[in-house]
Structure formats: structure tokens, C-alpha cells
Write a structure and sequence with these properties.
Number of helices: 5
Distance between the termini: 29 Å
Oligomer: single chain
Number of strands: 2
Structural class: mainly alpha
Shape: globular
Order of helices and strands: HHHEEHH
Largest sheet: 2 strands, antiparallel
């Protein structure tokens, strides 16, 4: 993924009603997920929620975990651990490249 496409995937473009329609998740549930810290849409200057492609992907992950029977507290922990794992994997790859360059 290029830097430009990555930044596009993080840009909040969908309002809550569009996000609800795209995902099949109701607006009240989207608000609940935000209150619980599972989703963090950007806000316009007027306070309107704007969801990104990345938020849509995260919502698909949340929905899959709910379908597997995980509660919201568990989902928050799983998402946190997955994010930490991604950061550590990127760091390992960086260190590996650095070590290869020195050899």
C-alpha cells in the first residue's frame, strides 16, 4: 500500500448513516462502539462523525469477533493486542533489515 493510498484509507469520508448502510450495523451500535473505544471516527468542526475505510475494516473485525461470541471488553483487549503485535512485527522487520545491511 502506498503512502497516498494509506492516508486515503484513514481519511474520514462516511457519515454515520452511510457507515451504517455499508456495514449493516445500526447507528446506535456505532455510537456504542465509539463510547467503548472500539472505533474512533474523526470529527468535523461541527462535531459530525466521519468514518474512514480503515474504520470500516475495523468494524468488520469487531463484527467477526462478536459473531465468535466475544464481548466488547474482550474485543477491546483483542484489538489492542493485535495493534501491539503489528507494531512489534514492523519493528522486527526493521531491525532485521538493519542487521542484513550491516552484514
Amino acid at each position: 500500500m502506498t503512502l497516498e493510498s494509506q492516508s486515503r484509507s484513514l481519511r474520514g469520508v462516511y457519515g454515520i448513516s452511510v457507515m451504517s448502510e455499508l456495514s449493516g450495523v445500526g447507528p446506535q451500535t456505532l455510537r456504542l462502539y465509539e463510547r467503548r473505544g472500539l472505533l474512533t471516527p474523526t470529527r468535523t468542526d461541527g462535531g459530525t462523525r466521519r468514518y474512514s475505510e480503515s474504520d470500516l475494516d475495523m468494524l468488520a473485525r469487531i463484527t467477526a469477533l462478536i459473531d465468535d461470541g466475544v464481548n466488547l471488553v474482550g474485543i477491546r483487549l483483542i484489538l489492542s493486542l493485535e495493534a501491539e503485535n503489528s507494531i512489534l512485527a514492523a519493528r522486527i522487520a526493521q531491525l532485521s533489515e538493519s542487521a542484513d545491511g550491516q552484514a
